[in-house]
Amino acid sequence: MSIAVCPGSFDPITLGHIDVVRRALTVVDEVIIGVAQNASKKYCFSPEERLALAEASVKDIPGARVLPVHGLLVDFVKEVGASAIIKGLRGAADFDAEQAMSLMNRHLSGVETIFIMGDPRLAHVASSLVKDVSNHGGYIDDLVPPEVAAALSRKDSND
Ligand code: PNS
């Protein structure tokens, strides 16, 4: 059985992430969505919230499951028996950010990263933009799973 890890901050998970997970499942049997920490980011949702929202969002996708990543991603990839990391690319800015991470992960452990081009119809869907739009009262229900839209709405009303 082939397993890949789709890692990320998922702060929060969006329809762009879900699209990459679905398409990754056309090339591997199981996709583990690894909810990790990016040391350079300040998060809106707690690790537990990001995990729960990702779980709720993929509950109906056979072959997808969600786990927290503690520590280095490459150690997690080995622990779960995955053969690769899969990440989505929306464009050149994503490529620039991902290039160093993929080379570092290969340097550390030999694990390869496979890139899937994101659906161009979702190229503007970034967690950071979704949070900003939502925070300013904009409509985001067609950009994120329903559970995430509800969670963002609760966050905004608590601000
Ligand atoms: O969605 P993001 O923030 O771009 O995802 C980046 C993430 C969380 C996958 C990356 O920061 C990561 O792998 N963090 C776990 C710790 C680690 O392995 N750091 C070295 C990365 S080369």
Describe the fold and architecture.
By secondary structure, this protein is α/β, with parallel strands linked by helices. The chain is 43% helix and 18% strand. It is built from six helices and five strands, in the order βαβαβαβαβαα. Strands 3-2-1-4-5 form a five-stranded parallel β-sheet, with helices on both faces. Helix 2 links the parallel strand 2 (30-35) and strand 3. The model has no long low-confidence stretch (mean pLDDT 97). 4'-phosphopantetheine is lined by residues 7-9, 36-38, 41, 69, 72-73, 101, 104-105.
Features:
single chain; binds 4'-phosphopantetheine; 159 residues; alpha/beta; 6 helices; 5 strands; five-stranded parallel beta sheet
Q: Between the first and last Cα atoms, what is the distance in angstroms?
A: 45 Å
Q: Indicate the radius of gyration in whole angstroms.
A: 15 Å
User: What letter string, H or E per element, gives the SSE order?
Assistant: EHEHEHEHEHH
What ligands can be seen in this structure? 4'-phosphopantetheine
The coarse silhouette is globular
Query: Beta-strand level of the residues, as a percent range?
Result: 15-25%
Widest sheet: strand ordering: 3-2-1-4-5
What portion of residues is helical?
A: 40-55%
What's the tally of helices? 6
Class based on secondary structure composition and strand pairing: alpha/beta
